[in-house]
Amino acid sequence: MGQAERAWLFRFAERLSGAICTPGLWVVVVVLGLSARCYQYFGNPSYWYDEAFLVRGVIDLSFSELIGPLPARTIVPPVFLWLLRLCYITFGAQEWSLRLPAFIASIGALALMIPLARRWLGSPGWMWAVGFCALSTHCIHHAFEVRPYATDFLATTILLWLAQVFLAACDTTSRRQAGAGLLTTSAVVPWLSFPAIFVLFAVCVTLFIHYLKKRDGRRLAFWFCYSSVFLLSSFIVWYIQARHLYYPGLKNEWTYVWGGFPKDYSAQTLMLWTALTPERVAHYASTGLGIPLVILGLAGLIRCWRRSMEEISLLFGPPVFAYAAALLGKYPLADRTLLFLAPVVWLVAAEGLLYLMERGYRAKVVVPILAFGLMIPGMAISVQHCIRVRPRMEYREALTYVLERRGENEAVWNWCPDLNYVYVEHIFLDCPSKYASDPVEPLGAARAANKGPLWVIAPNNQVENMTESLRSLPLQRSLCHQFFDVQVLRFDPRP
User: Fold this and answer.
1) Does the reported pTM lie above 0.90?
2) What domains are there in the chain, each with its CATH number?
3) What is the pLDDT of residues 278-290, one digit of tens each?
């Protein structure tokens, strides 16, 4: 390539970089992320089994009974459960009703990321942080799910924003308003989000560092009040709710299935698990970008270190405290339990991109293009979410198919009785054909199959296990219909 071609290519890169750094493009990105969340939520995909456990508890239990462990060892923050119960009483058990708290939390967190990133990073860094948030696949998925992970994400965003406003306040009025917000939030948030305790601890440390820097008695008094409020509130919610998380199977499941705890405490295992943890955290924040975001995070660490210790404490405190809790076997660092750290990942990655831009004019041109390139896969997935609803499993359609075709005395064997209970008893209220029998274990299914046709509803990965007990019986499979990750089978007695 000659000198003229290189000069033309660089001028093109300059224009492209300038276009990428304009707010108009990122407005489109935010609208795309918002549209993906709305399309999936209003598309009303079926409940799946992990939601059904929680939905059944919310339906059957009163507000006071939702304090403590729920059936199926489901432990969820009390305020989130009360919000679900309120939605059930007001709107019913439909999917859109009980997913409303998570949807509102997801939309609110996306909206709040804009002022948080603008205050923290300025332009153009805030655009990249907000872009990562808008296009996060896991944020979109948890926006239409009856689980508290979207509220975990919102709690982190609120606390980081309030802490940043308090630290950067230039006048007494702004500082008092932000301080009042922090005190109120520190009392309420532990009841809405369990992992918020790690962010609250980080804010506590940051406020103390801020006091040491200013040497102001009023800041010390505020730090003492904040610490007292959040510790007392956190202890109460731990005692009545969160401590029930520590049932015997918790650590085994999260260690060997998800990798949330180290398998043992040998030096080699701890080093390997520690080395892989940052990539897991970053990957869950932005799917497929684990390693690039970790590299950018290291650059962001250097930039934060040069700016202030408060930023270091506020951004890196939550993952450090969560890591310490995982080492102690108290909080698993894997999969969906990592979503609350996503705002930290995006802010640190954007700090890293700004650090690279400061390396020279060529870097200032190339880095925005690099940042935009990292988001292209997320854009493609978000577009798909705007075109097609993606349920975890389409149980409602499978159940409707069976109810419309089964005879009065034909038995149905469901893999998940909780899903059956929610739909048949609380959603399909006008269904003319209720279940005459509902065998929930192999022996009951075998007895029912000896009397007449048997319908089986099972996820694809459980069909073989469920039908194994029927192979020795004189039955023939007369129907097999596939829904999204769910199969409907019918077995008839052989003539």
Assistant:
1) yes
2) 3-387 (no CATH), 395-493 (3.40.190)
3) 999 999 999 999 9
